[in-house]
Design goal:
Rossmann fold; seven-stranded mixed β-sheet; 259 residues
Length: 259
């Protein structure tokens, strides 16, 4: 049985209504925005989206060095990552909408969206009245440029700030909410990332996290790390630094507060 829907979020003058329902309708106008950003027609974009995942995976042989995973996402994937992420968000809209409902339940104050991709969660959070600023962090300059453009178009430019990494001096020392979705399995040391998250989260803050440490039964996720020792260290760190907070949504994303 599905949980009862959340009560409507009060609308604030000047903020767009980027609700889960709006995402289900058009992905926050994702197709048109991406086509415009890439200089494609909608028909051309529709032709490229279905093959985007395979095209990204085709980069893997010889291109993906686990020791330089960050450089791969920053330099090698180019705008192909935008297409792959858009295909995933549009093709899994029901799941993404539930993660947006979860975010709506917890997001407040200063929100860190770590590895935020095409910005669905950053933009939706920025449109919430209880959120002050969303700090979007992503290695890929194409992702950052697209999210900045989307924020301007949606009237959220002053509420979304984009950075390459957490070392940027302009970032707050601590965040009230942290969102890290579909990222941890791409990191060569996800345990260290959890430690950094624990240090950067307010004592009563909330982290929304998911992961998928699996390369697939047929190797369909070649960019994921799945070493058993890495995974065990990750779960030991998670259990020592965070306490899970219950939420009613039947999704893989979980909520945590720091211990």
């Amino acid at each position: 049985m599905s949980p009862s829907p959340l009560p409507p979020v009060p609308q604030v003058a000047g903020l767009p209504a980027l609700t889960p329902e709006r995402f289900l309708a058009d992905g926050f106008d994702l197709r048109r925005q991406l086509a415009d950003h890439l200089g494609l027609s909608l028909a051309q974009l529709s032709e490229r989206l279905p093959s985007s995942t395979d095209q990204l995976a085709a980069l893997h042989p010889g291109a993906f060095d686990p020791e330089r995973a960050g450089a791969f996402y920053e330099e090698t994937v180019g705008d192909g990552h935008l297409l792959e992420l858009a295909a995933w968000h549009l093709g899994s809209a029901d799941y993404i909408a539930d993660t947006l409902r979860l975010q709506q339940s917890f997001a407040h104050g200063h929100v860190l969206d770590f590895g935020g991709g095409i910005g669905s969660h950053a933009l939706a959070a920025a449109a919430l009245p209880q959120v002050e600023t969303v700090w979007f962090v992503d290695l890929n300059p194409h992702n950052r440029a697209f999210v900045e453009a989307r924020a301007v178009e949606l009237g959220l430019a002053g509420r979304v700030r984009c950075f390459r990494d957490l070392d940027a001096a302009a970032l707050p020392a601590r965040f009230d909410t942290l969102v890290c979705l579909d990222v941890l399995e791409h990191l060569s040391d996800p345990s260290a990332q959890l430690e950094q998250f624990a240090e950067r989260l307010q004592p009563e803050g909330i982290a929304l996290l998911n992961w998928y440490f699996f390369k697939g039964f047929g190797g369909e996720y070649p960019f994921h790390f799945d070493d058993p020792q890495l995974v065990e260290r990750f779960f030991r760190t998670l259990q020592s630094r965070f306490l899970e907070v219950f939420h009613p949504y039947l999704i893989t994303t979980r909520a945590y507060r720091p211990l």
